[in-house]
Structure prediction request, 279 residues.
Amino acid sequence: MFSKLLIKLIDQAIIPAIVLLSARIISIVLLAMYFEVPFELTKRGFIFEGKDQYLQVNSYSLLAMTVVLAISLAFFLIRAHVFHDTHITPKLTATLFSLRMQGLVQNSLDLYTKGAIWISYAYLMTIVTGALSVYSLSYPFVFYITLAVAVIATILFVSDIENEIKSSNEEDRFDQNVTFLEVNTE
Amino acid sequence: MNKLFVNTGLFSILALLLIVPIVAITMAGFNPTASGTSEVLSAQDRAVETFRENSAANETLPIELQEIIKQVEIEMAKEAAESAGVGDLEIGN
Prediction:
């Protein structure tokens, strides 16, 4: 009755949402303390006294969010390229099992749902930082960095999907050979 | 039909989760009235400072002439304040 894919996506989206929300709140408080900028916490959120102060804290806070997003994407992409169960090397598999770290090995469904969520966040961040920089509410370099992170992550994610397709094609070819040998053996 | 409703609900939850960080970004702002007030106050300070400087320079002149100059300066300051949109200010304390 329920779509398994949607439930999986919701499950995978909870932690990134909490991580990014925490990064935003903590970075605003820490940056305001670092720059010695007074602010009020109201129903509308963090309110700064002047536009310049808001611009400074908001830009570096968005940069902090982008850094958190980039670290999370890097962690996910390493898992996708190195620990993906379809193209992990036998030696690494043996090492991971001997170290009891087999939890690092991920199947395609887990990886692709995580990837879809993190890359969605990356593009949403890009759109928001772009809009804010257009209206002079953040420095433009934040938008360029976020865009670069999103594009690089997408390219690496697509290359992992290509590896997956390549390995599945090789498996198909091997299956045909087995069938052929079986026919010959009989 | 029931499946469609359930999946629509699930999709809405997913969309809400995706929007959470975006809402967090819009949770900060600045007080535009505070910056406007500071501009008005700095304009007032400048006007008062100019008035005091001119008053000190006019101390050597005869009293009648000082009065006339003072009247003219007050009128000029009022006109300048009105043209700058700060007409409610009291010039010269």
